Amino acid sequence: MKLVKAIIKPFKLEEVKEALSEIGVEGMTVTEVKGFGRQKGHTEIYRGSEYTVDFLPKVMVDVAVGEELVGKTVEAIKSAAKTGKIGDGKIFVIPIEEAVRIRTDEAGEGAI
């Protein structure tokens, strides 16, 4: 089992959700986050004063999948979230040691 963690632009969330649904991914967790990478934020003018916005709004999508779906999941997220512009985001794949469904006590891949 792996946890695929993707940080994407907020307006791409619906496309990513649809792409994951098409490949059979049944659930995900979505969190609104702020951050920056190479783009280092940008400057804005508010009421005549210029200030730097360091942390840009992003969305983090967490998807737990079995080993056989990892490649398809990464590819689906990558193709759905890509704009070709700086700040498109990152995808991380992290091993999951154990998963337990609280309601039924199912463990392992059956729990995801």
UniProtKB/TrEMBL annotation:
What GO molecular function terms would the record report?
Answer: ATP binding; enzyme regulator activity
Modified sites of kind O-UMP-tyrosine: 51
Which UniProt keywords are listed? Nucleotide-binding, Phosphoprotein, Transcription, Transcription regulation
A Gene Ontology biological process noted in the UniProt record is: regulation of nitrogen utilization
Please name the SMART domains in this protein's record.
Answer: P-II
Q: Which Pfam families match?
A: P-II (PF00543)
Name one cellular component (GO) term. Answer: cytosol
Q: How does it assemble?
A: Homotrimer.
Name the PANTHER family on file.
NITROGEN REGULATORY PROTEIN P-II, NITROGEN REGULATORY PROTEIN P-II HOMOLOG
Q: Which family does it belong to?
A: Belongs to the P(II) protein family.
Identify this protein by name. P-II family nitrogen regulator
What taxonomic classification does the UniProt entry list for its organism? Bacteria, Pseudomonadati, Verrucomicrobiota, Opitutia, Puniceicoccales
